[in-house]
Amino acid sequence: MEHCKKCNGIGWIFTKSDGADNARQCECKREKSVEFLSKQSNIPNRFSGISFKYGYITNNNESQKMIKTIAQKFVTEYPANDKGLLLQGSVGLGKTTILCIIGNELIKKKNNVYYIDWNDLTRIMGSGEDAGSRDYGKISQLVNKLTSVELLLFDELGASKTSPWVQNYIYYIINKRYNNKLMTLFATNYFDTVSDNNDSLTDRVGDRIRSRLFEITKPVLIRGTDFRLNT
Ligand SMILES: [Zn+2]
Hints:
Layout: E1 12-17, E2 20-25, H1 27-30, H2 34-39, H3 62-77, E3 84-89, H4 95-108, E4 113-117, H5 118-125, H6 136-148, E5 151-155, H7 164-179, E6 183-188, H8 201-205, H9 207-216, E7 217-223, E8 226-229
Parallel strand pairs: 3-6, 3-7, 4-5, 5-6
Antiparallel strand pairs: 1-2, 7-8
C-alpha cells in the first residue's frame, strides 16, 4: 500500500494553535473511494454499509436513542474527539452493530477504518497450545496494520482467555496507537464490577490493558435494554 509522506498514511494532519489540537484531512484521502475503503475495512458482510438509518437503532426505546446520540456525536466530532469509546454490555445488545455503524459512517467521510475481532486476532497470534505453529510473518503484518490504521474497531475484547505472550502483544498494539494519537473503539461483554464468580474485564484482558483503556476511552455501559453513559 502506498504511504503518503504528508500524513504518514494516517490521512489527517495534526496541528496546534492557541494550545488547541486541530486536525485537517490530508489531500491523499480524497483519492480513495468509499467502496475501496469499505472493502478493505474488514467489517463483517452482515454489517457492511449499515448506517444510523438501520432499524435496530431507530425504534422508540429511550436507551437505544441514547446510544445513538453518543455514536452520532462521536462521528460528528471525529477526529477531534478526546477519547475513543468502550462499549460494555451483555451479549445480544447490538454492540457490534453500533461499532460497525460508526465505522461505516466514518468510511463515508473517507476515513480509513479497520475492524478486528478479539477471537480472530488471538487465533492468528496462536494463543496457548498453538504457540509452536505461529506464523510470525502473518502476525507482524497484522500488527503493523492494527498499529497504523487511522481508526480501529476492536470487537469482543477479552472474549477468550489468552496467553501472557498474546496479551502483551495486544497491549503493545493498544499502547502504540495511543502514542501515535490514533483512536480506537472497543466493545466487550465484560464489566468492571461483577457478581459471583463471573470474570471481570480485568480478569479477561489483564491489568495493564484495562488501565490503559481507562485513559483512552469513554465507557458506555449497556445493561439489559438500559444504556447508560458512565462518565
Ligand atoms: Zn496523506
